[in-house]
Amino acid sequence: MTIYIARAGHPVKKTTLYGTDTLEVQASGIASRNILSGGTAYVSSGGVASATTVDDFGNQYVLSGGNAFGTVINNGGNEIVSSDGITSNATVHSGGVELVSGTADGTRIDGGIEILSSGGFASNTIINSGGVEEVGFTDISSATTVNSGGMMVVDAGFAFKTTVQNHAVAIVGNIGNADGVTVDSGGYLIVLPSGVVSGVKGGGTVISSGVVLVQPGATVTVEPDTLRQLDVENSTLYLLTGGTISNTRVETGGVVNVFARDVASGTHISSGGVQNISGGSAYGTVIGNGGVEQVGPAQNPYTTGTTSGDIVKSGGIEILAGGSAFGIKIEKGCQEQLSFDSIDSGAAIFGTQIVSNFATVSGGIIYSGGTQMILGGGFVSGTTISKGGIQIDGGFASSTVILTGGTEFVSSGGTASTTSIQGGKLEVMSGGNATGDILFIGTGSELLIESKTMPTAEIEDFKSGDSIVLAAVPYSAGDTATVSKPGVVTVSAGGKAYNLNISGAKVGETDFTFGPGSILTKSDAPQMTFLRPPANASAGLAGGWNAAAPNAGLTASEFAPKILGGIQSVVSASHFGGLHAQEAQPIPMVIPVSITQPF
User: Fold this and answer.
1) Of 70, 310, 336, 530, most Cβ neighbours within 10 A?
2) Structural domains in the chain?
3) CA separation for the pair 285, 294 (Å, rounded)
4) Cα angle for residues 242, 245, 247 (degrees, 5° grid)
């Protein structure tokens, strides 16, 4: 790696930078006629770069206060202009990109793309055949000329004094605004729902409804309002107000945009294809390997798209950014991503579902091999985790049901509330928490706690066959588990006490055991209780006492021959014709019983 520095009195000229080579143009420094062939140039405040050629994998950064003149951006090259940076008279060839958050003046787009972003300003731009200028939110384009085969897209910003010539296209997006547009004969101005145009003049065509297909070279076709079985490849299909399509195939380079009150059904998206649902509805979409469906995409953050009954196949991606989805099937090897107040209900998850940024998901089922990832700000309720399914909770998960073989991991910052473990496993990792109730249903359920800080949840129906693993609490011989107060089981280990809220635990109860593997278990073995002898028992009971099931119903003839002067313990049906031991709390004191002095 070679570092070149252009500073006052020490210019850098006619140098080729490769790979990791770097050029730094400092204040009062000049760099001219350099070639970035994989290298990177940084033009700092007060620095000037002129006639730079940016080739494949090359990058020129014009930082705040920096200036670039006459940059040539070729296929695979990039010029990035930061806020308060300035580029002038650049040429962007096919495959090149100019990203402007500062100011660009006099750019010539010859098949490449200029993107205005985060307050970018462009003036006197010329868009030639194959070239595109995109104007984003809060951005401004002034005095742009769109020549034959060129395209200008005002997604969400402002355009002033635009000229659209023969066989050229300007598109004003949902929250875009264009003023003073001249559309020459043979030119097209396409206005999407909620887009605003004013001062339009000329003999060209203005389209604001129906179905429009824009193909390479700015070829525009106005389709019927209801369209079936269209192949969209290397072109863009717009469903404007009232448009309906069915059984459309979206292939490499194809884009379908569905807006308010529009409907797309049965769309099949293959590799390189994209369908955007922004305020409209989609039904039964199949998203194949390499295909993408975006619902409520960023191009219109104020509308809500809806999709239902989709199938996302291996390698496909469904992105919800403010939209809603119902009954989606996410197959193995594919993803559904949710953010920005999106809603998803009833998904069948065989692949991966990612929930973040205040998205809400309910009623999903995670099948074998499926994963539901809840990131910070994500909210999920009512998920069922079946055998082989995994939920990773770094947000908030409520009312999760974990079936046998299923696992929920509560990671740092995550919370699991009111979780039902039905033979599965709930693992609360360090920094995670479980609140509300943890219900043990069935047998063989496991709660694993990786921190020394115990969860605040109330543990319900913990019984024989279930286990609580205190992974951060090493076990040693002599460690104990006792009921310190009603509903609280205290594990004493290593000189420290760890309290678990276990419903129904009673003081003096000896059913809980903390043993090898740092595992807390409960034994539900029957215990004995002492029974008062029958009032009519014979004198043969004198000096003796009896421990039997309280509902045994013994008679004097059964007692007399068996208990003379000693102890009888009735523990099973084999004793005296069908007596049974019943669970009960043991009487802590043994009291001799005299038949002549009944209780």
Assistant:
1) 336
2) 3-207 (2.160.20.20), 209-353 (no CATH), 526-599 (no CATH)
3) 11
4) 165
